[in-house]
Specification:
Residues 153-172 are annotated as: Disordered. Keywords: Membrane, Signal, Transmembrane, Transmembrane helix. InterPro entries: YcnI-copper_dom, YcnI-like_sf. With 219 residues, the protein is an alpha+beta fold. It has two domains: 2-25 and 195-217; 29-190, Uncharacterised protein YcnI-like PF07987, DUF1775 (Immunoglobulin-like). The chain has helices at 2-26, 175-185, 193-217; strands at residues 31-33, 36-38, 42-50, 57-63, 69-73, 79-84, 87-92, 102-110, 116-126, 131-134, 145-150. Strands 2, 4, 6, 7, 9, 10 and 11 form a seven-stranded mixed beta sheet that branches. A four-stranded antiparallel beta sheet has the order 1-3-8-5, covered by helices on one side.
């Protein structure tokens, strides 16, 4: 029995490490938040881009969903923004997003007038010439983010989202607006259920390895 536990421990340790690595990579998606907004609102969205390769991310293209209208963006040092039809591109002028780093880009868009889900297709360009298309369905290897658009409740600000203050022309956001973005961003990471499954398997593997180690010490 002790020999069996030792074999399990020898296999479980590297397996747990590999599964934890897989879970970390699987959750590192290009995302757009918040995950919920209202019809007709001028919403301030956050585009979060992690670099998952050794090569730097040098350009990100985002397609505006049908019915959504791009309005403004917050200037990001080291990045140039271009708008062509429904495509908005952030292009690095110096270095880009290095491996192990991520960058947030903020923009304001007018939501569709009809309730429903809108999908954000993103295209990540790396310095080595490779392209990752974040345009798959939720649960796939490269999912796009989804924002659920609900009927507006007729708020006093005329249906504007928390990004309405950006329309002053300053191109910047207040601290309260940034805090609201941070609080809502966690709801739309686009993480696949497979991530939680792999984390559970990793935990079980770790426990088996710990049991085997304790049994070995008591011999």
């Amino acid at each position: 029995m002790n020999r069996m536990f030792r074999k399990i421990a020898a296999l479980a340790a590297p397996a747990a490490a590999a599964l934890l690595l897989f879970a970390a990579v699987a959750s590192a998606h290009v995302t757009v938040s918040p995950a919920q907004s209202s019809t007709g609102a001028w919403e301030t969205y956050t585009l979060k881009v992690p670099s998952e390769k050794e090569s730097a991310t040098v350009q990100v293209d985002l397609r505006m969903p049908a019915g959504a209208e791009f309005k403004q963006y917050e200037a990001t040092p080291g990045w140039e923004v271009t708008v062509e039809g429904n495509k908005v591109s952030w292009i690095a002028k110096d270095g880009g997003i290095q491996a192990g780093q991520f960058q947030r880009f903020y923009f304001t868009a007018k939501n569709p007038d009809s309730a429903g889900n809108i999908a954000w297709d993103a295209y990540q360009h790396y310095a080595d010439g490779s392209l990752v298309q974040w345009s798959g369905e939720p649960g796939s290897e490269s999912p796009h983010s989804i924002t659920a658009i609900a009927e507006a409740s007729g708020s006093a600000d005329g249906g504007h989202g928390h990004g309405a203050a950006d329309m002053s022309g300053s191109g910047t956001m207040t601290m309260d607006e940034h805090q609201a973005i941070v609080e809502k961003e966690g709801a739309s990471t686009g993480t696949s259920p497979m991530v939680y499954i792999t984390l559970g398997i990793s935990l079980v593997s770790f426990l088996l390895a710990a049991i085997a180690l304790l049994r070995g010490r008591t011999e």
